[in-house]
């Protein structure tokens, strides 16, 4: 069975073929580490994880690279405004120095990795922080300068988009319509973008001290680890018009070759009618969901209920429905675990259900269809098959265990129960979150609190 994926470049579903026989090069644009990730960001990382798991299920080896943007990303994705890291330094009352920047970046990068782990996302093979690849970024700008694509203004080094004939092929609109970006009268074309912004605390470069831009970082790091041409590059759809458009321009102008075969983009998480985002003021973090009694897997389940190319509407009601379904699924696993005839974890023999499930996943990662198939077959599915489906879903089904809680956990549950009876909701929620972090989920039932063990 062949895996088909929607390619933003051709705007159609294509049968996936890697450049090298069985090894796939995958680059996923990582976070700008100036704050905690919100669950909108995390939707994109879950979609990318499902994609990676689908590749693995189809027997591809995957070389996965993810960057950490710790410099050069301006507050607007359209290359305007303040540097996001500088903004974080101001917010946290830290001096504007490279050391302080690194400190803030490391803090939020660690928080980000914790969120990924909680969501059972398989970690990339290579993490790369932009500030550690200045040499490669400068070399790529140099290569572009040698080919005549670069000019300098008073505030930075720019890419001349008029010289790259294919500019804008990812958005497939008239290049002139891709509106700008930095409104700087010295720019030759409004859509030209900065490869380096001058700044006296930045790094030395042949053009002066400064910070390499966000787009050049991703191109330099992906080429360094995956080669000048590689298989898949991902991100949210918001990256199509600027970030990825500019990445293609720089990379292809420098090498003269097609940069990436498959550009795959996830649609956005919507809250209150708007894209979830910092400037929209409607964001929610994973730990906020935890303090409201949701397990990270409830959110992962919710994400899978929508196709990755459709917008997903976020609400606590939708999340509660996902939580019920996820709990039901865990209970099915616990029940099947008690059936002695099916305790092995070996690869299942293909059958009608596994065939249909794989077909849904291989049809451009149709997770809503795969979940529907799972529920249609829930009465007859074997534990082996269920665990096999979880290789793609990643709901941690192989980590669930029913076991007696140790004394300290039982004490915490009793403490929480007293608080709950006294209607101390805030404290009750804090204890629920603490218990979840220790791997125990409390469910309040009419018969009293029930405990479930989850290993993640
Ligand atoms: P950033 O840290 O802003 O570069 O964003 C990290 C990732 O999150 C990118 O791949 C974005 O496309 C993605 N992203 C940002 N906002 C949303 C949202 N509301 N829904 C889904 N993905 C998002
Ligand atoms: Zn990127």
Quick summary of this structure?
With about 450 residues, the protein is of the alpha/beta class. Helices cover about 40% and strands about 20% of the residues.
Q: What do you see in this structure?
A:
With 456 residues, the protein is of the alpha/beta class. 41% of the residues lie in helices and 20% in strands. The protein has three domains: 4-266, 3-Layer(aba) Sandwich (Rossmann fold), CATH 3.40.50.620; 270-399, no CATH class; 407-453. The protein has helices spanning 39-57, 84-91, 98-118, 134-146, 214-226, 240-255, 286-291, 296-304, 316-337, 352-362, 367-376, 383-393, 407-421, 425-437, and strands at residues 4-7, 12-15, 23-28, 61-68, 74-76, 80-83, 126-129, 150-152, 156-159, 193-203, 210-212, 230-236, 260-266, 269-271, 274-275, 312-313, 400-401, 440-445, 448-454. The chain is built from 14 helices and 19 strands. α5 (214-226) crosses α6 (240-255), α8 packs across α9 and α13 packs antiparallel against α14. The mean pLDDT is 91.
SSE topology sketch:
Blueprint: E1 4-7, E2 12-15, E3 23-28, H1 39-57, E4 61-68, E5 74-76, E6 80-83, H2 84-91, H3 98-118, E7 126-129, H4 134-146, E8 150-152, E9 156-159, E10 193-203, E11 210-212, H5 214-226, E12 230-236, H6 240-255, E13 260-266, E14 269-271, E15 274-275, H7 286-291, H8 296-304, E16 312-313, H9 316-337, H10 352-362, H11 367-376, H12 383-393, E17 400-401, H13 407-421, H14 425-437, E18 440-445, E19 448-454
Parallel strand pairs: 3-4, 3-12, 4-7, 12-13, 14-16
Antiparallel strand pairs: 1-2, 5-6, 8-9, 9-10, 10-11, 14-15, 17-19, 18-19
Helix pairs in contact: 1-8, 2-3, 4-5, 5-6, 8-9, 10-11, 10-12, 13-14
């Amino acid at each position: 069975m062949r895996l088909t994926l929607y390619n933003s470049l051709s705007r159609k579903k294509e049968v996936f073929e890697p450049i090298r026989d069985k090894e796939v090069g995958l680059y996923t644009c990582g976070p700008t580490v100036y704050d905690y990730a919100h669950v909108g960001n995390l939707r994109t990382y879950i979609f990318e994880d499902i994609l990676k798991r689908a590749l693995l299920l189809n027997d591809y080896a995957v070389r996965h690279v993810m960057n950490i943007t710790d410099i050069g990303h301006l507050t607007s994705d359209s290359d305007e405004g303040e540097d996001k890291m500088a903004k974080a330094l101001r917010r946290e009352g830290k001096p504007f120095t490279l050391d302080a920047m690194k400190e803030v970046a490391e803090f939020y990068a660690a928080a980000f990795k914790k969120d990924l782990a909680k969501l059972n996302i398989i970690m990339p093979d290579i993490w790369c922080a932009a500030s550690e690849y200045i040499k490669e970024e400068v070399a790529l700008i140099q290569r572009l300068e040698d080919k005549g694509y670069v000019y300098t203004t008073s505030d930075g080094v720019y890419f001349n988009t008029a010289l790259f004939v294919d500019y804008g092929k990812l958005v497939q609109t008239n290049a002139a319509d891709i509106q700008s970006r930095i409104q700087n009268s010295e720019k030759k074309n409004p859509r030209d973008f900065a490869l380096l912004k001058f700044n006296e605390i930045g790094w030395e470069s042949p053009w002066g001290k400064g910070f390499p831009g966000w787009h050049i970082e991703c191109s330099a790091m992906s080429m360094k680890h995956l080669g000048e041409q590689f298989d898949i590059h991902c991100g949210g759809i918001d990256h199509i018009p600027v970030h990825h458009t500019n990445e293609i321009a720089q990379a292809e102008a420098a090498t003269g070759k097609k940069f990436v075969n498959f550009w795959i983009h996830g649609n956005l998480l919507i809250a209150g009618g708007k894209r979830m985002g910092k400037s929209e003021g409607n964001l929610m973090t994973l730990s906020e969901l935890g303090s409201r009694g949701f397990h990270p897997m409830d959110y992962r389940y919710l994400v899978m209920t929508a196709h990755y190319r459709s917008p997903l509407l976020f609400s606590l009601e939708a999340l509660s429905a996902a939580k019920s379904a996820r709990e039901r699924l865990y209970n099915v696993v616990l029940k099947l675990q008690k059936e002695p005839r099916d305790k092995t974890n070996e690869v299942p023999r293909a059958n009608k259900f596994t065939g249909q499930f794989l077909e849904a996943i291989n049809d451009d990662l149709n997770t809503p269809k795969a979940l529907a198939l799972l529920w249609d077959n829930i009465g007859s599915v074997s534990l082996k098959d269920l665990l096999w489906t979880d290789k793609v879903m990643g709901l941690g089904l192989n980590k669930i265990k029913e076991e007696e809680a140790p004394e300290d956990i039982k004490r915490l549950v009793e403490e929480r129960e007293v608080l709950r009876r006294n209607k101390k909701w805030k404290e009750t929620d804090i204890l629920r979150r603490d218990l979840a972090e220790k791997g125990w989920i409390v469910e309040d039932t009419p018969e009293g609190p029930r405990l479930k063990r989850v290993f993640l």
